[in-house]
Amino acid sequence: MGRFVARRLLQMIPVFLGTVTLIFFMVNVLPGDPAAAMWGDKAADPAQLAAFKHARGLDQPLIQQYADYMGKLFTGDFGTAMDGRKVIDKISAAMPVTIRLALLAFGIELLIGVAIGLFAGLRRGKAFDKGSLVLTLLLISIPVPVLGFIYQNVFAIQLKWITPTVQDSMNLGQLVLPAIVLGSLSLAYVARLTRTSIVENIKSDYMRTAVAKGLPKRKVIGTHLLRNSMIPVVTFLGTDLGALMGGAIVTEGIFNVKGVGFELYHAINLKEGATVSGFVVVLVLVYLAASLLVDLLYAVLDPRIRYA
Amino acid sequence: MRGASQVKWVVAAAAVALAATACGSSTGSTDAGGPVNAAGTLSYQSSEPQNPLQPANAMEVGGGRVIKSLFKGLVDYDPADGKLRNQVAEKIETTDAQNYTVTLKSGWTFHDGTPVTAASFVDAWNWSANVKNNQINSDWFSDIEGYEAVHPEKGDPTAETMSGLKVVDDTHFTIKLTGPVSYFQYKLGYTAFSPLPKAFYADPAKFGQSPVGNGPYKFVSWEHNKAITVAAFDKYAGVDKPKNGGIVFKNYTQAEAAYKDLVSDNLDVLDQVDPADLASYKNDLGDRAVDQAQGAIQNISFAMYQDGWKPVDKAKVRQGLSMAIDRDTITKTVLNGSRQPATSWVAPGVMGYKENSCGDACKYDPAKAKQLVTEGGGVPGNKITIVYNSDGGHKEWVDAVCNSIRQATGVECIGDPKPDFKTSRDLIKKKQVQSMMRTGWVQDYPLNANFLRDVYGTGAAANDAGYSSPEFDKFAAEADKSTTVEKTAELYQQAEAQLAKDMPAIPLWYYKTTSGYSKNVQNVKFDSFGDPVFTQIEVKQK
């Protein structure tokens, strides 16, 4: 197990370097000059533009900029954005918000999704199963912006239970609705995956044995059925955590949440290479950590899976 | 002449101040609301500033409007009529439109208590103009003598100060320009010309995060990406004392989200209604909906540098094409009423604006249009293309304009989209447009010269049409030499008359401020820049 973790950690290094390199060059080949963009619709003053680029090292050849960027990255310096703020400051301001939002969404999809899947699987063909099929189909087919606007209109404008947008991005209570919107799609997937897995495993030998041994129903379902059925769900959830972190752009926009999505959206609009790369680097790390966690969880869930 | 007009401004400013106080003491303001909480704060839809908050470093609205509330320069523009009024300046005198003597009022202080002196201006301008300090608005100082020395085309500056600026004493300084610019005072209202306190120079970057100004509001906090908060400054010496306790500039990524907050009274004043809600916002907000002209215009210009457009007769063709455009219908339907049909080349609310200076040429008359186009020998190649950028929501109206031209005159007309603003600008700058292009102008200051000299003068930076008229230039040059702004505006109206004869660009419509406010506030007015008059807004008592 220790060797496996060590090997996985080592594998992360080339993946990490590769993504950062790719992102850096992809952002920089995008058309448009971030420095000239600061002048908006007006023509940039050439002397000012040159001075501006020089101050930020943008007049260097791209390969030199890349070397500088990578060199600094390993000392924890993510560079400086066009507005003079450190990218690391932007990350540390936006990350806590998005982590809260993503974890809330994750919690909602995990608890409700697994619960729906479990009951539907146990009561296959019954009314609840059919109802959950309709519900999950509905959730999968409605695009996130539509769902966001519907919730906003129903709960904020019509019922006035909440404010239409999040007033304080760090307030967990206010983040619940955006989290539901963000988690809805995955919730449907989790429910469907769990249900299928339950239906498959319920007829397996170990289940028959467990029932024949006279184990209490709670133990049969909790320890034997659910645990073995969670493997595909955990795989999905692991990659989903990363997707939730990065994919919140739309949801954060609708509810005016000041997280990673908000920063990324702005940075891409302004063609700000340093900020985009900085955020993507952190998201890559989140993804890598989540997938490592998933791999480790396999062994916990099913002892037959061994790591060499 | 100069003195007389100055007195008029002072009187006008005093009248505004009196009117303002009278208005504040009575409950009967325009919205006829309830009692007012003078210490109440209001929230405004804004965006994250792109740069630190230094006066010469804000070109976009997110930082610009915050700086406008924190700093006050020598003069500003009366929001009611766009006219210049004195603020820190007691008077600005000139006899030749090139040498100016500025006298400051006493009693102005920065928010940290230090007095505003002549040096506060001169040092700030010298610092901001210096190329080393990377201020995005530094070219605003280019009229001043010695600008080249602190801001050379290439290389390091050869001087620290501009030779045209001299401090006489604490309340006087002189400005010498490289040539006569009669409307230089109008430029002085721009935020780049704000004074800076001594504390600024110790650490400009740090200052940019918590600025100290001399304006109606003082800085409270800047939570990046969330909000900037300012509070009323009780020792403010200007004519526009705040009638509220402060402003929270709240950030929004999406205009739709801000609109929803406004409708549910979680946001007090909106910047602009998003396109999706344009159709219904007047219904949603009732008399709290705002719909007024802005100091910006949309044109389509001719590529006057192409041989086909050069012959004298072609002016008729251009006038005919202008008459072929049904502005009323297009603004109402395609643009959802968010624009106002133009009748001149200058936007309303701007000093020197003359309604109908375009005359019959801007009235829809398909029969006359066809006749004029035929008389002028037709369009070169009997085909028009209109170059525009397809990333700015222009496709719909360009197609509508083309349809209108095609139906009225039979001339073939198609839109020529370029993927983004930059690509279309490149083409226009390199003078490679074949027949027509989309052009627009947003005012820098509310004077007609800004819409005329800077856009249609021979060789002007924004003269995309490549228009060159000796008559126009003559009036413009005369106007620039006159020593009163009134005379300047009048002479520029004569220059504008020349545009009606030559028609180098077809005025289409003026931009509008489509906005609104919540039930928590009243007396919300917008100026010609599209910004609310923050100091006038009253917060209702809860």
UniProtKB/TrEMBL annotation, chain A:
Q: What is the name of the protein in this document?
A: ABC transporter permease
The record's Pfam families line, in alphabetical order, gives: BPD_transp_1, BPD_transp_1_N
Main location (coarse class): membrane
Query: Membrane topology type, per the record?
Result: Multi-pass membrane protein
Q: InterPro entries from the entry? A: BPD_transp_1_N, MetI-like, MetI-like_sf
PANTHER family tied to this protein: DIPEPTIDE TRANSPORT SYSTEM PERMEASE PROTEIN DPPB-RELATED, DIPEPTIDE-TRANSPORT INTEGRAL MEMBRANE PROTEIN ABC TRANSPORTER DPPB-RELATED
Tell me the ranges covered by the ABC transmembrane type-1 domain, including all copies: 95-298
Task: Tell me where on the tree of life, at the top rank, the source sits.
Answer: Bacteria
Which UniProt key words apply to this protein? Cell membrane, Membrane, Transmembrane, Transmembrane helix, Transport
Q: Where in the cell is it found?
A: Cell membrane
From the record, give the transmembrane residue ranges: 12-30, 99-121, 133-152, 172-191, 233-255, 275-301
Q: Which family does it belong to?
A: Belongs to the binding-protein-dependent transport system permease family.
Q: Source species, please?
A: Kitasatospora terrestris
TrEMBL record, chain B:
Give the SUPFAM superfamilies listed for this entry.
Answer: Periplasmic binding protein-like II (SSF53850)
Which Pfam family, any one of them, does this sequence belong to?
Answer: SBP_bac_5
Taxonomic source organism: Kitasatospora terrestris
| The UniProt record lists the keyword Transmembrane helix | no
Q: Which keywords does this chain's UniProt record carry?
A: Signal
Q: Does the keyword Signal apply?
A: yes
The Solute-binding protein family domain covers which part of the protein? 84-461
Give the matching InterPro entries.
Peptide/Ni-bd, SBP_5, SBP_5_dom
Signal peptide span: 1-19
Name of this protein: ABC transporter substrate-binding protein
Q: Which Gene3D superfamilies does the UniProt entry name for this protein? A: Dipeptide-binding Protein, Domain 1, Dipeptide-binding Protein, Domain 3, Periplasmic binding protein-like II
Q: Which residues cross the membrane?
A: none
